[in-house]
Design brief:
Elements lengths: L2 H23 L5 H18 L8 H20 L4 H21 L5 H8 L3 H14 L21 H18 L4 H12 L4 H8 L3 H24 L1
Helix pairs in contact: 1-2, 1-3, 2-3, 4-5, 4-6, 5-6, 6-10, 8-10, 9-10
């Protein structure tokens, strides 16, 4: 085994650790894909490493591995960043209004408070905001690293309302599309395993997934407007 190959192999446990951490925060991404992207970062780190800089290889590689995985996540994510920004603003405003008013704010109130068109607010707070992967720049939601009982009641209620809306919309999907969404998002099952379960190819699962999300977003947007 060459020194280069040995150095790359020595970095793989770190690659897997970073990939698992990101997969936990972004459950819509497949761990195998994240590890593959991270391995490319490790290879680039070994090939470009200069010990004269006085930085250990592991420290130098960590930044490149994380960046490589992050780029992979961005490629997998079909939702534009400006939509995410609008969703974060609208979600924060909705929470603040809930805390101040003591009730769930109406779409018009959220729109007026954050300076967006009411229809736009309904859109970004529906399917895209509910089903999109978490941004790596955002902290983990409180419920993912703290007991739920430590959260503010408004935050718990808002999250449960969104979850109920998604589960209700799921029941309207055709059986195969519903199974894909439930396995992938709630069961954290890869497309390959879902395909084996349904007896179809990974590509077909991906097609069903895209179609299901389109239906869900349309239904959730319609319910928000009601």
């Amino acid at each position: 085994m060459s020194e280069r190959e040995a150095a790359i192999r020595a970095l793989l446990p770190m690659v897997r650790g970073i990939a698992r951490r990101i997969a936990y925060k972004v459950p819509t991404c497949e761990l195998e894909d994240l590890i593959a992207d991270g391995a490319l970062g490790a290879i680039r780190a070994v090939d470009s490493f200069d010990p004269r800089r006085g930085v250990p290889l592991r420290v130098y590689a960590r930044r490149l591995v994380f960046g490589s995985i992050l780029n992979g996540v961005r490629r997998m994510d079909a939702i534009p960043e400006h939509v995410r920004r609008e969703a974060r603003v609208a979600e924060r405003v909705r929470y603040e209004l809930y805390s101040r008013l003591g009730r769930a704010p109406r779409s018009a109130e959220v729109a007026a408070a954050c300076g967006l068109d009411e229809r736009r607010v309904r859109s970004v707070l529906s399917g895209a905001a509910l089903l999109a992967p978490l941004s790596l720049d955002e902290p983990l939601p409180a419920g993912m690293h703290e007991p739920v009982c430590d959260e503010d009641p408004p935050a718990i209620l808002l999250r449960h309302q969104r979850l109920r809306a998604v589960r209700s919309a799921l029941d309207t999907l055709p059986p195969r599309e519903r199974e894909v969404v439930r396995c992938h998002y709630f069961g954290r099952t890869t497309f390959d395993l879902v395909g084996r379960r349904l007896g179809v190819s990974r590509q077909r699962v991906s097609q069903l997934h895209v179609r299901a999300l389109r239906r869900l977003r349309t239904r959730l947007a319609r319910e928000s407007a009601a």
